[in-house]
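Quick one - inputs below.
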Amino acid sequence: MSDLRVHKTKYINETKRVSFKYDGKNYFGYEGDTLASALLANGVHLIGRSFKYHRPRGIMTCGSEEPNAICQISDKNDLTEPNVRATELEIYDGLEAFSQNCWPNVKFDIGGINNLISPLIPAGFYYKTFMWPKSFWKKIYEPLIRMSAGLGKSPTEPDPDIYDHKYVHYDVLVIGGGLSGIISAKIAAKSNLKTLLVDDKKTLGGSTIYQSNDSFKIDDQHSSKWLEKEINEISEIENLTVKTRTSIAAYHGYNYLLARENLTDHLSIKDKKDKIRQRLWKIRAKKVIVATGSIERPLVFNNNDRPGILLSNSINKYLDYYGVACGTNIILFTNNDSAYETAISLHKKGIKNLIVDLRKNSQSEIAKQAQNLGIKIYFNHVVTNTFGYRKINSVELMELSDDGNTTIGNKIKLNCDCLGISGGWTPMVHMHTQSGGKLDFKNDDQVFIPKEIDNDQISVGACNGDFDLETIIDKTVNKINIFLEINNQDYKNTKVGCSIEKEKRNIWLLPNKIPLGKTKCFIDFQNDSTAKDIKLALKEGFRSIEHVKRYTTTGMATDQGKLSNMHALGIIADTAGVKMGTLGTTTFRPPFTPLTFGTIVGRNVGKFFEVVRKTSIHDWHVDNKAKFENVGQWKRPWYYPKNGETMHDAVQRESKAARDSAGILDASTLGKIDIQGTDASEFLNRIYTNAWSKLSIGKCRYGLMLNEDGMVYDDGVTTRLAENHYLMTTTTGGAANVLGKLEDYLQTEWPELDVYLTSVTDHYSTASVCGPNSKKIINKIFPELDLNDEDFPHMSFKNTKLDNINCRVMRISFTGELSYEINIESKYGKSLWEKCINAGQEFNITPYGTETMHLLRAEKGFIIVGQDTDGTMTPSDLQMDWIVSKKKYDFIGKRSLYRSDTIREDRKQLVGLLTDDPKEILEEGAQIVSDTNTKPIDMLGHVTSSYFSPNLNKSIALAVVRSGKNMKGQKLIIPMKNKNINVTVSDTIFLDKENKRLNA
Amino acid sequence: MFLINCPFCGERDQSEFSSGGEAHIVRPKQPTELSDDQWAEFLFMRKNIKGVQFERWNHSHGCRKWFNVVRDTSNDKIHSVYKMGEKPPVK
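Output:
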């Protein structure tokens, strides 16, 4: 045992030594230690450098509010984790931790120079400095800021750990396993309610569990003893689930909460292996009881940030829970009674200490107890300065004036090796406000407390602003009974004796003889914001707390200002001369403590990240070396490179083959909607721009679907299979949305129509065979099928069979070639495909992918919705007026087609572009102009599709251009980075205007 | 994350639903008779109030039915749900 491990506690297992490394040096602690308690036991206080000034910093707290003692865990590229709070991390064999934000090391840190030049880096430094000269931004300022930004290092490789998600439902959720949380959970569970109790620590009991002062007794026992008995009892209750090492990350509406359970972070490296690291609990609770307690506040005075300065109650916890003395000569600086408990505890273990109290006196029982023990108390005194670079070695005190505004008398210098500070207690209202709750300001204690909102949530105990033992137990029991509508009598006769605080004195910024500008009175320790920064922000005109926060970065570090927010508010209120409660607070947002991404994603990583849809022919494409393209969730063959071809070469070969002989495309991903019902024709009339009533059975028709605003939404071919039966196809990406839109109209606008919609996209596979030899190939596969043009013309369909399996063959074309699409039940898709390939072998049938499909249709001037349109194109903009029925009384979007805006002549319209140099291929998305001299340059439009056509042996492009309809033959310019490309506006159809190929 | 009481399936998590904006905007029966302004009123104008709002919701990852929801946008409390075609409850 080290000299600083001064006594045994039940929470530290001294039979189990744990060795770990900190900054490369070997240390040991015991099972039950946090990294912070183990380092303190080894006498290590200095643990990091501050963010802006690189000042030496030490462990300051014992919990999630820790601003300074944050470190990097592990140096492995995949396992490393930054910003881990040493005060929460339980040590384990093999742990390697590193200090952050210092170079070359924590004891000698080059960045420390920032501390010396700090007058040059005030609040808003970045905003003020990096504004000019403008040209400095990219090469000088940005790299500089990036280098110094951020605290730790991010892992550079994927997280190898396993994370889990779990959904649960409870009648009651209790957040926080301290005194009031345990009482609440016990009452709830014993009232037959399914209850979950969560606490972020490894043991229950909060701050009461190490309480052993004679001034605090329940049923004549020390409050810790009494609570231990309660904890033992709740483990017996069947309805109650207790989860320790579990912290609530977020509290959403409707009592939906996310909790992170730590499962292996405390285990040795060997024991962690292959286990689930963390589990994210997704909790729905009928009622939520918030019992998150409070955290101690620091005090704001000059140099209040040195290593060796801790919150007073943390010194108490390190002593009574971990058995560790934070120093051997301790000064406690306080404005309230709680530091007296620490003093008495230290005194009992023989540790020298004295108290400096802002208050003029304290008449409470515990203050008397301290005085009786002979503990020296400086009432009405204030610490004005501290000394010691890497560790505090002395403090300077002065007497306070009557009004507390200035210091009087002589300086007193006292030596110490540790300073405990306590500025009172701040209720943890994060959960309440995250859920949408508002706050009230309680003047007595200068705290914000929850304003009750509804029937499903309540705050009890210290987080509700109840600080003394008697009130906590009394009010908790009463409130829980009312909240849960029960009548529990278990605590009716509980006897509580406790010291009650009588005197209060709160000063947000402590007075000092030194001008504020020359002091370092830290408010936000992690982000290095000082009282001076806040005052400067106010002086510069900032008033809203949200603005001051962002300007000074107060409360914006990884601890989210758990320690700093109240002081920032207090100083703003004092300076601006307004009441605290009127300022409001900054918003508390989830997560309460940082969450690792792994926890949020859970098992949805790697191949489970997103759903992948594959056609039944997929394996063939893989076997034939297709490159795939993602279209929505679908994997579609993009092109099939042969013998190391580039994409360009493959597409040129595929495109030529499809026009010269035969090509085959897997079109299974196109959306397919089966439409049936006596009103099916009428329905199609209403949703498409063209007329459908006269389409005869066995015929196909292309349709354009608009939004109600007149803009093109989707397109596709629909086939009339029978009198009241249609098969609609949609774009691959639009399938789900089109179905949703059709359902919406049927359910809400036209419920009287007799129409039934079924998505059959996955039910059928489609092989599309095109090219001059396609008819011969189809004939080989379906010898019985009559393919002559009179009987089976373009835009018609026939039912047939392939080895007794029903097929639908449609003669439709998206390439401009003679083309047949065969639909077959999905499970036969691959064998159909292979039959086509075999039958086509003698014609060199060439499988082609989406890229070739896009090229072929562009040659023919067919649009792709979503590529050539962007939600601002009407049919007329696409030069497709022919498809808009003049006769129909109404269809979706019709009325919008003659709004003043849609009939404008100067809308962007679809045109073809030919480059003057036929080898030059335009970039899709490139801007189009007519004049590069007049500035600003007038942008006329952009290129939407661009390819090199092997069949025309020249570059072709589609584009949208302002007033483009009337610009045929006109010269335009595409300005690129290094040159201007000259183009001529052309027709959108580049090949076979007469449809000879289609009807071949 | 709300709990929404689908009138066909019962209480389900919000992630199963999609919102369809303001309710009770009827598509005009004779759009061609309307002036540009009247059509624009139907096409574009939607309320976005702080307080009780009537909304369309779709149980898109469930029964796929559309229905109406009365929701207070200031606290997300859902006061009632009712089927398409049913009369809205009085405020």
